[in-house]
Amino acid sequence: MVSEILLVVLFPSQLSTAQIVKCRVYNPHHPPHTYHQPGDLIIGGIISHGGFISSPIDFTEDPPPALLEDFIVVSKAYQHILALEFAVKEINENSQILPNLTLGFYIYDSYDNARKTYHATMLLISTLERLIPNYICNIQHSLIAVIGGLDSQVSIHVATILDIYKIPQLIYGTSPIMNHKTPGLPFYQMAPQEALQYKGILSLLLHFRWMWIGVLIMNDDNGERFVQSVFSEFSRNGVCFAFIERIPKYSFDDKFQEMLQQGIKIYDQVMGSNAIALVVYGDSYSIVFVRWFPYLSGLEEVVNKPKGKVLIITAQMELVSFLYQRDWDTELFHGALAFTLHSNDPPGFKSFLENTNPFSTKGDGFIKDFWKQTFGCVFPNTVLGNVENGDICTGEEKLENLPAPFFEMSMTGHSYSIYNAVYALGYALDALFSSRRKNTAMVHGGRLKLQNQPLWFEAQPFSVCSESCHPGSSKKVKEGEPFCCYDCIQCPDGKFSDQEDVDDCKKCSDEDYPSNTRDFCIPKDISFLSYQEHLGMGLAGATLFFCITTLLVLGTFMKHHNTPIVKANNRDLTYILLISLLLCFLCTLLFIGRPHKVTCLLRQTAFGIIFSVAVSCVLAKTITVVLAFMATKPGSKMRKWLGKTLANSIVLFCSLLQVGICIVWLSTSPPYPDVDMHSVTGEIVLECNEGCVTMFYSALGYMGFLSILCFMVAFLARKLPDSFNEAKFITFSMVVFCGVWLSFVPGYLSSKGKYIVAVEIFSILASSSGLLGCIFSPKCFILVLRPKLNNRNQLIRRI
């Protein structure tokens, strides 16, 4: 008795346009009761019976042509089918492998649709073509394994069901990404681990000294995994990322226009960047999107025109084309560096391809659609008896005449993985049946027969107290119970676990932080207050505005140098104060940008000294006002204190005290560039470490002391008789100053990252502008708008 073992291969939807059609399968070597009756449904594929690779399939009803025209075909993937058929043919013709057993297969098209993939998988584990879950009446056809798919999502959908029945799946595409919803699904990957490619790409970049690169990835989990895998390693070796762009999923529905607009933005980013090397990671058909690049340059929205780029393409991608891209230019790929899967040309495969045509091949539900769309011809309609418009397909068309993006005569890497998968299963089954023959064979009537039992690979039974803890969690032993009984708790903030059943979660490195699911680490972004961001630009703009305003005030006073209002209250102090305020505004620019050694040394010390000079000038002006009124009293001895000597001495003495504090600070524990990796989640903050915090607050406290002293003196002198008593304006300016710096301390302590710097810049601008506005705006009003009030008589109030 001859049995048949079935393999099933699931492919992405771009492979073919096969539809569900009515068909009848017959085999002249089997009795009539094995026929499939007309009207039975079979998904377009190949069926093997009784030792024959492909039994003839007589289609009683062809798919309507209108339906077929709605599909887009990647003709190059048709070689995957032929590689599978060739491998099965070799095994069945080899008497050394699986004697008396026939290896057959079905081919299902997933249509890149989860619902259809699940439906096809349920058909596999039910009675042939009758969806009755868990019910199989035909033990002649035993499902032994599934090969596929090329898309990792297809593999996950299939494995979700196959895992219940312990049916193995051999994948030849990208390794699927597991998460807490799909733990431990059975996969056997035919292609090498992708981590080897990442090392190869890094070696290539370092060899050519391409340290500034762009990255194009698919907008899916595989693309994100690629970035997570290479970012840290590449960065440690000095490779920087100019940009990371995500390729949208290829679509021909109503979202095509949206996808095209995304493509224009990506093209503009890629071509506008000065990064010459471009690493492209995607699935087998991602290259189709990249092929649009030369044509996007013709659209009005595109700013950057094409320029030379070196593409570095990962092995999963293939140089393929949709049929509408037949005549498109491939200049973009000239000089591209592509990794490739290992491949080989088995003997006889090329002649097998040369002999393939739609008239000699039986049982292939894909070949006519492939032939029609690849060669641009039509087949006569055998049902209606007429001929469709167009060139007639004769079967004389040659596959070897097709360009490489449409079909290759040598076996590709993906096809070779399928070929190896079939042989791996063949040898595994041969070893399994050889073992069973020794243990389960029984003699009945002198004839040796195998027990007629279905296969699936018996599952190992489980006996556990608690379910496994998935990645992202750890075990917590239950009190009063054995250690094998535990609860699963999510990893705390800052920790992760990438394996099952861990006792404790691990910390990410300082350069990384845990994902939301706590099952892997994500590289941190580098953060500092820069001119390129809105906050930095806004603060720099405010600084420029106040600098210009201060210069205008200084120019106005110099223009009216000899007028009474300028000479009042010591004009030399006024000029020193204005210049000090100008330098204070300019000091804020030291706080913006990437911290360096020089800027860190000058930030606090330069501002502390300059601002102390400004406050000292205000104090000197206030004391001068008090002494001036005291000197007007009869018999007063204060006249000898009046003059420039006292004012200059006050400014010099008060400023030198702050200089001394800063000298001690710089000589003992000066500020320096530092990296804060813990304050802000997900960011590496570049900052200036203040060194000795005590000295920092000493410098700040000294400025506060001068301000309070100035405020007290000005407050006492605010009601002295004079038509222009400057003390009341100084009083108000000191109220603003003290209010700003008192609120600075809690704001500084509660802020994190670059916002600490922003708080300090804002405080400097606010306090300096308060002095400028409160003290000088009344004088500027008189100088510019009311010049008649600028005379001596108006400045003296009679008592």
Give a written overview of the molecule.
- The relative contact order is 0.07.
- With 799 residues, the chain is an alpha/beta fold.
- The N and C termini lie far apart (132 Å).
- Helix 4 links the parallel strand 6 (141-148) and strand 7 (169-171).
- Helix 2 packs parallel to helix 12.
- It has four domains: 3-191 and 344-449, Rossmann fold, CATH 3.40.50; 194-338, Response regulator (Rossmann fold), CATH 3.40.50; 473-523, no CATH class; 534-634 and 700-795.
- It contains 21 helices and 24 strands.
- A five-stranded parallel β-sheet has the order 5-1-6-7-8, with helices on both faces. It has a five-stranded parallel β-sheet with strand order 10-9-11-12-13, sandwiched between helices.
Which class of secondary structure composition applies to the elements? alpha/beta
CATH fold type of the largest domain: Rossmann fold
Q: Specify the overall morphology.
A: elongated
- Work out the strand percent: 5-15%
The span between the termini is 132 Å
CATH class of the largest domain: Alpha Beta
Largest beta sheet: strand ordering: 5-1-6-7-8
Rg, Cα atoms, Å = 41 Å
User: Treating each run of at least 4 consecutive H or I residues as one helix, how many helices?
Assistant: 21
Q: Which segments are poorly predicted (pLDDT under 50) over 5 or more consecutive residues?
A: 13-71, 300-304, 383-387, 441-455, 457-462
